Structure formats: C-alpha cells, structure tokens
Amino acid sequence: MRRHNLSTILRMVHFSGPITRSNLAILTGLNKSTIGALSKELIDLGLVEEIIPNRNDHVGRPSRVVAPNERVIAIAINPEVDAVTIGIVSLGGKVTRRVRYAIQQSSSAAEAVNLATAFIDGMRAELERDYRVIGIGVAIPGAVHSPDGSVTLAPHLGWAREPIVDMLTQATGYPVLADNDGRLGSLAERNFGAGAEVKDLIYINGWGHGISGGIISGGMAVSGFSGYAAAFGHVKSSNSEKTDSAGICGTLEADATRSALLDALGITDAGPDELEQALLAATSQRVRKTVERQLDYLAIVLGNVINIVNPKLIVLGGFLASLHAMLPDYLPNAVAARALPAAYAGVEIRPSGLGSNLLLIGAAELVFENLLDDPARIRSEDESTPDHT
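== Transcriptional regulator ==
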C-alpha cells in the first residue's frame, strides 16, 4: 500500500506540477499526516521538494507545496531525416535544454549514437554533479520492437534491424528505452498537452517525410502484440497507385504529404511554423484545393479509426494540424460524413499543445514511467548504478 501511495503522490506532482499537501489530501482521500510522511519519503528519495509559501499570502498556517525535483531528469533523443534533436527533460515534463544537430542526410544509427554520446560526454561532469539521470528515451520515426527496443524498420532514416537500445546503453552507460515517435507523442499529449485528463484519444502527426500516430484507450497506450499499433500513415485512404515508405499503395502517407503543400505554395522548404503561416496567408485556389484534398484523405482514415476505437479526442500534429488550421470547419464535416454518428458524437479535434518539445517530452515519459510506478526503486538502482566516469 505504501508503494502504491508513493506512486500516486509522485504521479500527481509530476503531471500537475507544484501542489499543496492539503490538496493532495483532498485528491487522494489520505489524511494529512499520511501525506506528510509520504512527501518526506519522496524528499528523502530526492524526487520532490517542499516549498513553504509566503505567509503573507495565507490566513493561518500555510500548507506546504510539494513540487517535482527538477534535478531528476531524462535525456531524450529524436533522430530525424535532417537532424538529431537531444534534450534534457526534468521530472514534471519540463524541457530544460534542447540541442538540434542539423545533418545533410539521414544519419546512420551509429552516427546518431555518436552524436548523443558526444552531447552526454560534453556535459558528463555537470550531469553527475547537478542532476540525477534516470535514463535515456529515444523517439524513433519508425517501427520499434517493444520487447527489446530495437528498430525493426525506420525507412525514412534508412535504418533496419538496428539494436539502438543496446548501442546507446553500451556507449553511455545509462539505461535506455526506445519506442515509436507517434506512440510517445500520444503519451506526451495525454500527460501534458491537448489530451491532459482525456482517457481515450488518437494522436496523428504529419512530419517532413511521413505520418505517425498513437492511441490512448482507457488511459493506457495501445502498443499491440509487437509494438506496431497505430500506423495510421499506412492505412488506405484512396485507390491511388502512389506508394508510401512501406511500398503500400494509396495510403495516407502516400496521399497527404508535406511536399505537395510546399509545391502548391511555390516554396522549396519551410519549418513547421513557417509552413502554417504560409498556408494561413495563402489565397490561391490551387493551395485551397490541395488542402481540401489532403483533409479528405485524412477524414477517410479518421472516420475508420473513430468507428473502430471510439476516441473522445483527436490531436493533430505537424502539417496535419496546419491543414486543419487553414480550414477549421472542413475536417470535422468531412469526418462526420465518414464516421458512425454515435461514435463521432462529442469527438473533439484539436492541434497539439506541446509544439516542438512534444517528442522530447514523450521520450522522457518512457523513461519516467517505471519510476512513477515504483518511486522507491530508485534507492536500489542508486546502489547498483555503475560509475560512468
């Protein structure tokens, strides 16, 4: 019971941020003395801090505020086609440092590991002096085999059968976990973004060279038997002969592309924010028709997903969110024509709430999950952690 209560308190502080002892007592139903004892244990474990509010702001004795210890961190890595992004994310989901290494072409798994190792080695002394590193989380734009975290296939990166978890563990000395970027994006949105407090949601993201997604059902991430669930980009959306990265014809990834939007806009490249601004400013019929066509493809897939999964919320990321921003009424109406009315009733469609930090936060959540389940385990892990120097 004590371990369960420790987990409950740490989860509340992690997801909600600083919260008073009195509010923790109300939310958990535990008495104040029990909350005090649990908070003290979490402080002793180095996972939370207590803040005494300014007495001038309260009548009577102020309740202490329990806050996540921001020195407890995960290192997050997101390899992409044109960059490798590495960040430090603290307990509480705060990105405290972020570095994006631009590359001319997709890096190999070994090159991505070398970049990450160089980043970590460059601040090793700081990490060991000022932080407690729980581990490394990797957001992969491709299929990841859940049991061992190996990359089965990431076609846009040119990776296949890459033991990325083992490679990073051996190179850095830290424990490593990896998962599909879409699934991690859905976790981040559920915990800190547009889907906070929503137990049934679909996350679907359009990035530079593909489409990824994740499913949260009953508050739990859906991974499937081998970890390949929610591959929305490979769902049929037309009878087109255009193929996606897996060689499948007429899928959402083949039909709805960022490159087609850039072509319609008459520009060669644009970051996510620049692309959205260009779409919002566009007045040509060519751009509008391209956007409508891509939203129709998206609506076909979302209609099918709604009929199967029955979510409360659909969160759009990347250029898919930009399509919706340009024509905000188009997608809901297009989905309504393709989904069962009962399943679609009450469904909301929203843009991602975490912006460019989404996947770093998601990768960190992968690392923090075991800690949140059993905070006391950090004591035994500290005793067995090897020296990284």
